[in-house]
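Worked example

This section walks through a single chain of length 515. The input is the sequence exactly as stored; nothing has been trimmed or padded.
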Amino acid sequence: MPKPPYLGRALLSLFILLPLLLQVFAIVALLATSLVAAVLNSNSSDGMFIAVGTPFAAGFLFLCFRAGRNLIRKQFALDEPTEAKTGFLDKALFVTRYLPVLLAFAYTLTISLLALLQPVPSDGAIFGPASGVIFIAHFFSALVAGMIQVFGVPSIWPVVIPPLCIYAAYGFGLGQGFRELRAPRTASSALIGTALLIALAVGAMIWRADFMMRGILRGGSEAWYAERTFTDRYHPFQADNELVKVAKPTLTISSDAPRLDGATAAYPIYAAAVQAIYPNLANETRKLVRHSTTPEAYDRLIKGETDLIFVAQPSNAQRAAAEAAGHPLQLTPIAREAFVFFVHQDNPVDGLTSDQIRAIYTKKITNWKAVGGRDEKILPFQRPEGSGSQTALELKVMRGEPLPTPPREEFARGMGGVIQQVASYQNSREAIGYSFRTFATTMNLEDNIKLLRIDGVPPDRESIRADAYPYTVDVYAATAGTTNPHVPELIAWFLSPQGQQLIDETGYVSIPHNQ
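Given that input, the structure is written out below as tokens.
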């Protein structure tokens, strides 16, 4: 197979020059979006970026098309073509003519497939490692790939699609150049075969990406967006937030305010406290208040990056990490809560025993029929090790009995992901998940779940207060060697009548006065 005389220049454009030009267009589009949003005083950044970015994208693809067309024009029409060059057009097959584009497609699709076929990380990072591999393999598309990683977009396609679009537009440009030169047409069977191979490769990527997203963000960007916005209604000092208001706080902190962090489910508690107790520090809340996952909160506390966190009980590994760092965890219960199990509202099962729960999660019971339900396979979702709800499952429910590693389709990274899976998992009604009662009933955005009775006891405020519900747990204010002078008085405020009233109004259950 003869080598196209333009192979080197075409590959240079496809792998370096056009990707660099893409970065310029992306930066200009972002700056233009910011400018238009500022002029219009608009907060709709997503819609604005689509409106502004679409013409930029169209213009960039046209430049790719023109680059391919002009390459052929210059190579065979303007360059005083030699007999070897003109003869190439007469005898070159489809694959030979489009070799640069086909090599680029083969490279990107192969790299992407290999990246997606990596073992899925146990922490549920989804596409982090895969996008990192593609980032390295497409260094000159670094800005686009880097933005995807920074913002944690749970999709591989924003990383893969830009280079594929470059190749496609450039290839159409090559074709247009050949037509303008009236080059002999090649067999359509080669075009069809190539298109089928590319379609198969893209189909394999779609299948693998879909598999990786099961149990994490099934449902695409809407599910991802919902996962990230569970706490949007609870940011302190934000207009129209849903935080409990404290009329006349008995504690005010105006300087050296403790840095706070915690689990997503506990955010409404300490965010409401911040709004009441840090009244003069509204402009500093981004530095002082975060809402992480439980593992992140414990990790930041142990490293000294925050002073006080609000979380469920720590795992054994988290306790050991604090001991190893020389800052043993100090845990103060400030509220009571129920660790709950839930199913889809159409599931006929309304309750389970503790033994049945353990049997389901150890795979000794695998069909709902065994516990009074339909003849359907049970899909028991789990969360990452170290998360608050997973620790509660291991310590409170399983009581040391080991859990089998869940298959990918039975794994969810966030508590919101668990709820969404049970509410709509592949249109199934046979999943079961777990969370904390207040998050599941107040913060979550799904209505298609119902909480199960455990050992005949419903997870309501009365059973929690009476310690009758089997999986009643504490919410802790946790410290680890902080020297902030206001931490003790802030913890004391949460234990005061005013703090306990806030806890009750938030949806949690205040602790008994004698505790």
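What to look for: The two ends are 83 Å apart (CA to CA).
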